[in-house]
Design brief:
Blueprint: E1 15-18, E2 24-28, E3 32-37, E4 42-48
Antiparallel strand pairs: 1-2, 2-3, 3-4
C-alpha cells in the first residue's frame, strides 16, 4: 500500500533502502543521494556527488 509519494529526485531513482529501525529511507539517483524521514515523508539530508576529474561522471 502506498501512503506517500516522495518527490526530490530529478532523475531515475536507482535504489532505495530502509534504515534498520525503519525510521529513515535512503534513495539514490544519478548524482544525488537523499535521506527521508519515514514518519513525515520529508527529506532530512541531501548529498550531491560531483565529478572528480575530467570525464569522470562521479558515479560509484
Amino acid at each position: 500500500m502506498i501512503t506517500a509519494t516522495l518527490r526530490g529526485h530529478d532523475d531515475i531513482n536507482w535504489s532505495a533502502a530502509f534504515s534498520p529501525a525503519g525510521r529513515a529511507l535512503a534513495s539514490t539517483s544519478d548524482m544525488v543521494s537523499l535521506v527521508w524521514d519515514v514518519a513525515t515523508a520529508r527529506k532530512n539530508q541531501q548529498t550531491i556527488f560531483l565529478p572528480v576529474g575530467p570525464g569522470d561522471p562521479g558515479k560509484f
